[in-house]
Write a structure and sequence with these properties.
Layout (H helix, E strand, L loop, with lengths): L1 E9 L9 E16 L4 E12 L9 H6 L18 E12 L9 E14 L13 E13 L2 E11 L4 E11 L1
Antiparallel strand pairs: 1-2, 2-3, 3-4, 4-5, 5-6, 6-7, 7-8
Length: 174
């Protein structure tokens, strides 16, 4: 488990193009189910909260983009549904198999996920309603090299918007 808490301030006196603050809270936890030489299965859960107070006088687009559902959920276009408030939960069932080559630290795996999130993208007033809820599900194939999620291929489905996405990502996510 780990916890991340961040508070950023961008006062008007430092930069005349912005005057706002932002709070970010993230919590991650992992629960192993099966741990042996043939297969490893565990549940991963991530909870995100992003909040910009309404008392902020000038919020740049980049801050709204950081609070978008697309930055925290799979199955949604990147940076889609911008907002001053975001609440997201990512739930994964991760299945990993034995090393492909002995002692090369290359592990293939499968990820089954369900993401749900809400924000205030319609009116930017921090009023949360059921019409702002987005949810997606999918499955992914992953290749972990030396502890880094190097290659991910996801089939993602946005349940609310009935959109199917195929995504290939190269990353350095630990």
């Amino acid at each position: 488990m780990d916890l991340y808490l961040s508070y950023k301030m961008y006062p008007h006196l430092m930069n005349n193009l912005s005057d706002y603050s932002a709070l970010t809270f993230q919590f991650r936890g992992y629960l192993p189910f099966i741990e042996d030489e043939k297969i490893s299965v565990y549940i991963a859960n991530r909870f995100h909260l992003y909040y910009i107070p309404l008392s902020s006088s000038y919020i740049p687009v980049s801050a709204l983009t950081e609070g978008s559902l697309g930055c925290a959920m799979r199955g949604i276009y990147w940076c889609q549904y911008e907002g001053t408030f975001r609440l997201v939960n990512n739930l994964d069932i991760r299945i990993f198999f034995p090393e492909i080559f002995k002692q090369n630290y290359i592990y293939p795996g499968i990820i089954i996920f369900f993401d749900i999130g809400v924000n205030d993208y319609k009116h930017l007033d921090q009023v949360i309603s059921t019409e702002n809820i987005q949810y997606s599900t999918g499955i992914g194939a992953i290749l972990v090299v030396m502890g880094i999620d190097l290659v991910d291929f996801y089939i993602e489905y946005n349940i609310k918007d009935s959109q199917l996405f195929l995504r290939l990502r190269f990353s350095t996510f630990f």
